[in-house]
């Protein structure tokens, strides 16, 4: 695979935004993914089964789990400096309190549907006890688990996610090019009345004589059709086709989770500053943070691992000065915008419970934009 192909298509051949003639800002990494940050890996469990009327506990099922490992498996007990920002708190991201308190977290991140967030969290602890038991021998674990709502397409009350699915996503986490669209936790998600879900992007930032990566991953499930904006051009308010079909009424329950990763040396307060820039990238696509939308963002740095583990001595951490942080803000905003659009582009129509139907973003729009 050439270095340009991952920019154009996912490993399964689905198109990405850069497959179309649209001008984008910034320089992407090799895979244009959060996995361009060294040591960061991503895995999925995707559950798709059944058709027809909803039978709680049976289906139809359109859901899954996404796992993001901030460090290599053997290093997952080493904390990463981090910050959390909630633009609109109508959602959940576990572990947020200790991140606010200490500016760091350890263990993997999982993202799933709203009613499986607890299973993903507890499944992460079970998995850690299996693969790195010493990390929990004399310490507690507070893993990060986040969620968005997929109940329009999936049997969300059927509790179809179990510990085995969580473990499979964690065990399957890899670097390099990753899938996007209706995979993992993003399987049943919708944005702007189009099929959305999992999306990723990255940017390279040159700072003095160093080269750093900022990677973004989103689970996109937000936005109204009338607000959708693509590279500065807003959709016509009257353009309703292709339309969502509501076999059952669709309540507004949208959300977006974004994870920002970087190998740049930043302290905790700086990671929170990066997390606070995520809404600017969302706004470029037409997201307005409506009442029912849980818009919660996590940013972490893989640098300064020795400082994160220091005990009984003065900890020394290097960091890029705040006065030089602006190019990294650019990278976050650019990466978030592209990751959301990738989640939309790398997708197909989906029919779920009760015949509820969500169309894919028409590719001809992208060719003629």
Shape: globular
Helicity range? 10-25%
Give the H and E element order: HEEEHEEHEHEEEEEEEHHEHHEEH
Gyration radius from CA atoms, angstroms: 19 Å
Give me the secondary-structure category: alpha+beta
- The low-confidence runs, each spanning 5 or more residues with pLDDT under 50, are none
Number of strands: 16
Walk me through the structure.
- This protein is of the alpha+beta class and 369 residues long.
- Strand 7 and strand 8 form a beta hairpin.
- Helix 3 crosses helix 4.
- It is globular, with a radius of gyration of 19 Å.
Short description:
It contains nine helices and 16 strands.
Question: Which properties best describe this structure?
Answer:
four-stranded mixed β-sheet; six-stranded mixed β-sheet; 22% helix; alpha+beta; globular; 16 strands; 369 residues; single chain
């Amino acid at each position: 695979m050439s270095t340009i192909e991952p920019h154009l298509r996912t490993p399964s051949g689905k198109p990405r935004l850069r497959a179309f003639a649209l001008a984008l800002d910034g320089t992407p990494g090799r895979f244009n993914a959060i996995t361009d940050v060294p040591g960061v890996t991503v895995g999925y469990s995707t559950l798709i089964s059944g058709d027809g009327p909803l039978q709680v506990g049976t289906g139809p099922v359109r859901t899954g789990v996404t796992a993001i490992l901030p460090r290599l498996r053997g290093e997952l007990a080493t904390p990463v400096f981090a910050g959390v920002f909630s633009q609109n708190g109508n959602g959940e991201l576990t572990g947020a309190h200790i991140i606010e308190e200490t500016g760091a977290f350890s263990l993997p991140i999982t993202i799933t549907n709203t009613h499986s967030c607890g299973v993903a969290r507890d499944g992460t602890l079970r998995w850690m006890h299996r693969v790195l038991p010493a990390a929990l021998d004399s310490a507690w674990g507070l893993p990060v688990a986040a969620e968005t709502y997929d109940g329009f397409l999936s049997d969300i009350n059927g509790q179809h996610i179990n510990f085995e699915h969580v473990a499979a996503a964690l065990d399957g986490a890899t670097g390099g090019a990753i899938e996007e669209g209706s995979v993992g936790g993003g399987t049943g998600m919708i944005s702007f009345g189009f099929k959305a879900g999992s999306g990723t992007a990255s940017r390279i930032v040159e700072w003095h004589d160093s080269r750093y990566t900022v990677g973004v991953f989103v689970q996109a499930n937000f936005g109204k059709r009338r607000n959708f904006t693509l590279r500065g051009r807003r959709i016509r308010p009257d353009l309703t086709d292709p339309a969502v079909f509501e076999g059952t009424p669709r309540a507004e329950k949208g959300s977006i989770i974004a994870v920002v990763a970087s190998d740049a040396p930043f302290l905790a307060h700086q990671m929170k500053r990066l997390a606070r820039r995520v809404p600017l990238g969302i706004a470029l696509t037409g997201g307005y943070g409506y009442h029912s939308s849980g818009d919660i963002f996590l940013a972490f740095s893989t640098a300064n691992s020795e400082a994160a583990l220091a005990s009984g001595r003065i900890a020394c951490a290097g960091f890029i000065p705040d006065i030089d942080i602006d190019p990294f803000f650019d990278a976050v905003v650019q990466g978030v915008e592209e990751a959301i659009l990738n989640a939309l582009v790398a997708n197909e129509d989906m029919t779920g419970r009760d015949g509820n139907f969500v169309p894919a973003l028409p590719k001809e729009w992208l060719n003629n934009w």
